[in-house]
TrEMBL record:
It comes from Thiogranum longum. The lineage of its organism: Bacteria, Pseudomonadati, Pseudomonadota, Gammaproteobacteria, Chromatiales. The active site is at 130 (acyl-thioester intermediate), 243 (proton acceptor). Keywords: Amino-acid biosynthesis, Diaminopimelate biosynthesis, Lysine biosynthesis, Methionine biosynthesis, NADP, Oxidoreductase, Threonine biosynthesis. Its EC number is 1.2.1.11. Belongs to the aspartate-semialdehyde dehydrogenase family. It catalyses: L-aspartate 4-semialdehyde + phosphate + NADP(+) = 4-phospho-L-aspartate + NADPH + H(+). It is an enzyme of class 1 (oxidoreductase). Residues 4-119 form the Semialdehyde dehydrogenase NAD-binding domain. SUPFAM superfamilies: Glyceraldehyde-3-phosphate dehydrogenase-like, C-terminal domain, NAD(P)-binding Rossmann-fold domains. This is Aspartate-semialdehyde dehydrogenase. It holds the Pfam family Semialdhyde_dhC.
Length: 338
C-alpha cells in the first residue's frame, strides 16, 4: 500500500529537503503534491529524478492526500492544517503553531514515538524545534539512566533554520564584504556574515527569546517531565547548514564521561565522535550538514560540579531538525497506525 503526500511549503528550505528525503528513503509514497503560495504555483521542484509542478495551496483539495507535511510558517499551518485534517489528511506540522497544545502530540521518534498514537485526536502531529530535537536525542538516554536535574545550553544555529531568504542574505553579505561593497541587513537585524547574533525569534517578557523558551517548553513536553530545569541561550552564527550546541547538564545521580560515552554509543540516532586530539570532535560543516545523524563529542565531567557533564552536539538542522524528523514520524505512522 502507498500513501499520497502533500508537501506544504515545497519551494522552501525545509520543503525541498522533505521531497529529497521522501525520494531517497523507502517511504511507501504514491502521489506527491508540492504546494506553495500562488507566487510559485506552476514552477517546478525536484522529486527524485522527476520534476513536479507546484500547486497553489489555497486551491488544493486535501482529501487527495493521506499525509500532509507542513513547513510554510505558523500562520499557514494555523489556517490549513485543521482543514487538511478534517479532509482525512494526517498533518505532520513543522511549525510552532500546535506544539504547545496539550492535545497535539509533539514527537521525536528516538524519544517518544508512542505519542504518535494520539494523532487520532486532531489529525495533527507536531514536529519540535530543530534545537530541541538534537538536544533531546542526546539527552534522553542520560535522563532515563540517571535523571537530569538541569540543562544549561548554548546553541550555535545555522541560517538555514530561518529559511531561504536568510541563506541568501548570508551568501550576499559575505560576497559583498569580501569585495568591499555595501552591506544590507534585511532578514536579520544586524550583519550575520562574520558575526554572531544572540537573538533567535521574538523577545519574551522574561528576557529570553521565543527560540530559547521553545527549548524549555518542548523539553518538558517531550520528556514528559516538568521538573527538568532548562536554561538556554540561542545564538545565530554564520553557518549555512548544521546546528551545534554546548550542553552543560547536572544529573540526579553521578554519571562519568566514560559511562556517558558508552551509553550514547549504543543509543538510536547518535554517533559518538570524541577523541581528545586535534579535530577529534564533530562540526556543523564537516559532519553535521547533509547527515542524518546526531553527533556527540567533547564529553567530559564538569570540573565545577560533582554531577555535571558537558557535551557538544551537532546535527543537520534542516534534516534531523526538521524534514527528516517529520518523515521518520510519517514512517512510524504508516507502519503502525494507518
Ligand atoms: P513560496 O515559494 O510560494 O513563497 P522558507 O522557509 O525557505 O522561507 O520557505 C517558506 C515556504 O513557505 C515556501 O515554500 C513558500 O512558498 C511557502 N509559503 C509562504 N507563504 C505561503 C502562503 N501564503 N501559502 C502557501 N505557501 C506559502
Amino acid at each position: 500500500r502507498t500513501f499520497d503526500v502533500a508537501v506544504v511549503g515545497a519551494t522552501g528550505a525545509v520543503g525541498e529537503v522533505m521531497l529529497e528525503i521522501l525520494a531517497e528513503r523507502n517511504f511507501p509514497v504514491g502521489k506527491v503534491y508540492p504546494l506553495a503560495s500562488e507566487r510559485s504555483a506552476g514552477s517546478k521542484v525536484q522529486f527524485g529524478d522527476k520534476m513536479l509542478t507546484v500547486q497553489n495551496l489555497a486551491e488544493f483539495d486535501f482529501s487527495r492526500a493521506q499525509i500532509g507535511l507542513f513547513s510554510a510558517g505558523a500562520s499557514i499551518s494555523k489556517e490549513y492544517a485543521p482543514k487538511a485534517a478534517a479532509a482525512g489528511c494526517v498533518v505532520i506540522d513543522n511549525t510552532s503553531q500546535f506544539r504547545y497544545d496539550d492535545e497535539i502530540p509533539l514527537v521525536v521518534p528516538e524519544v517518544n514515538p508512542e505519542k504518535i498514537a494520539h494523532y487520532k485526536d486532531h489529525g495533527i502531529i507536531a514536529n519540535p524545534n530543530c534545537s530541541t530535537i538534537q538536544m533531546l536525542v542526546a539527552l534522553k538516554p542520560i535522563h532515563d539512566a540517571v535523571g537530569i536535574e538541569r540543562i544549561n545550553v548554548c546553541t550555535y544555529q545555522a541560517v538555514s533554520g530561518t529559511g531561504k531568504d536568510a541563506i541568501q542574505e548570508l551568501a550576499t553579505q559575505t560576497a559583498n564584504l569580501l569585495n568591499t561593497k555595501d552591506l544590507k541587513a534585511e532578514v536579520y537585524p544586524k550583519q550575520i556574515a562574520f558575526n554572531v547574533l544572540p537573538h533567535i525569534d521574538v523577545f519574551q517578557e522574561n528576557g529570553y527569546t521565543k527560540e530559547e523558551m521553545k527549548m524549555v517548553w518542548e523539553t518538558h513536553k517531550i520528556m514528559d517531565d516538568e521538573s527538568i530545569l532548562v536554561n538556554p541561550t540561542a545564538v545565530r552564527v554564520p553557518v549555512f547548514f548544521g546546528h551545534s550546541e554546548a550542553l552543560h547538564i547536572e544529573t540526579c545521580d553521578k554519571m562519568t564521561a566514560d559511562q556517558c560515552r558508552e551509553l550514547l554509543a549504543s543509543s538510536p540516532g547518535i554517533e559518538i565522535m570524541d577523541e581528545r586530539k586535534d579535530g577529534g570532535y564533530p562540526t556543523a560543516v564537516t559532519e553535521g550538514a547533509n547527515s542524518d545523524t546526531v553527533y556527540v563529542g567533547r564529553i567530559r565531567e564538569d570540573i565545577s560540579h560533582p554531577r555535571g557533564l558537558d557535551l557538544w552536539v551537532v546535527a543537520d538542522n534542516v534534516r534531523k531538525g526538521a524534514a527528516l524528523n517529520s518523515i521518520q514520524i510519517a514512517e512510524i505512522l504508516v507502519k503502525n497506525y494507518l
